[in-house]
Amino acid sequence: MIDFRRLAALFVALVTASPALASADLARSKNCIACHHAERRMIGPAYTVIATRYAGDSAAAGRLAERIISGGSGNWGQMPMPAQTNLSREEADVLARWILSQR
Ligand code: HEC
Asked: Is 81 touching ligand 1 by the criterion CB < 6 Å?
């Protein structure tokens, strides 16, 4: 039986050790890269553009983490973002903060 708490703790340790690298790997493993690129608009907005829009908004990280999990529409255009159900709230927080740091 896999101990998910241990895994989560390990994950947090890894992320703290090397935030940018671990987050890029997480975005890859959760398939965000199918629709997002750091600097180019693909199906979804570029991370740098998202970070610029929410710069100075201290509530942005929590809100984006929620939107990553439940999906969103109408914020960036016609194309909706489907709910990403394959990641935990912790992982969504990590990804939201990482995206917001890309300015
Ligand atoms: C099937 C394509 C697709 C995938 C997969 C996808 N996204 Fe998105 N994402 C979009 C689209 C389209 C939008 C714009 C939605 C809108 O206009 O509200 C978006 C918007 C966003 C936003 C901005 C939300 C806002 O309200 O401003 C963030 C942050 C984001 N995505 C992160 C992620 C992360 C992290 C992952 C991986 C876990 C991911 N996305 C996977 C298509 C995708």
From this structure: yes
Give residue for tokens 């570029």.
Answer: 46
Within 10 angstroms of residue 85's Cβ, the number of other Cβ atoms is 8
Residue of 57, 47, 53 lying closest to 95 (CA atoms): 47
Specify the ligand 1 atom closest to the Cα of 54: 27
Over residues 17-76, the pLDDT tens digits come to 677 778 999 999 999 999 999 999 999 999 999 999 999 999 999 999 999 999 999 999
Q: How far is the CA of 1 from the centre of ligand 1 (A)?
A: 33
The answer to whether 33 and 27 have CB atoms below 8 angstroms apart is yes
Rounded CA gap, 89 and 103, in Å? Answer: 23
